[in-house]
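Hey team,

Filing this mostly as a record. A colleague (T.K.) asked me to run one chain through the structure pipeline before their review meeting, and I want the input and output archived in the tracker in case anyone asks later how it was produced. No errors, nothing strange. Just documentation.

Input sequence:
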Amino acid sequence: MTGNRRVGLLIQERDRRLLRELGVMRVIDREQAQVVAGFHSIRRANDRLLHLTRAGFLRRIFVGSAGHGQKALYTLSPKGAAVVDGKQSGLPLRQSPFGTSPFLLHRLAVNQIYLTVKHRQMPRPDVRCLRWITFREPLTQAVPLIPDGYCELATSGATRPMFIEADLGTEALTVWRKKTQMYLQLALSGQFTQLFREPKFRVLIVATTEKRLQNIRATVAKQTDKIFWLSTFEQINEQGFWSPIWLRPEGTVRLPLI
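Output structure:
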């Protein structure tokens, strides 16, 4: 951990941007910090993150074993949250005795999707991200669903709402059966329109492997052939988020999102 040493630090606009983004992302590593804050070198990123940590704006933990390479993760401290709006909070950073917390790994995976949608080049000039929401409570009492994220894309005058689900292979397929039911309930009950003022939505599921994708896909297809779009982190990394890498619950043709 960082110890008790605190130093004075003049907060810059780049720092405020990083703290605001941490209010959404909740936890961040150095590579992700470089993207959101615009650091152009590893050294400058490491130096600034260290200064923000020592000044009490960030909390830090090292995950992984010393013999296999450690990674620093950062989250907002109460002092850092106060700089933004005083409401957002980070995640508790605890190192599991069995390795990095699965919850932290999951948030980092969701962040990769967030960075693609919010901070990287869009496929066309007319496409932009209108908003991203990170949920900390169920959508409603009737639909006790906590999506990993929600974004709205503007394209050619239309809005395309999308829920995000990052799957790291740690949940039983029965969980996906229940999630599918809840997303269908959200769509068919009219509650989505009441909450988000849009008529319909998609659910993007990003899995770790093709086998896992197909297992989730088969589970979803037992209830619907609509709403859901599925891909893998590997395909996103190799071909790009906006490429024709997405499968529907039925069919073999891979499609682009827009």
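Quick notes for T.K.: The radius of gyration is 19 Å. The chain has a mean pLDDT of 90.
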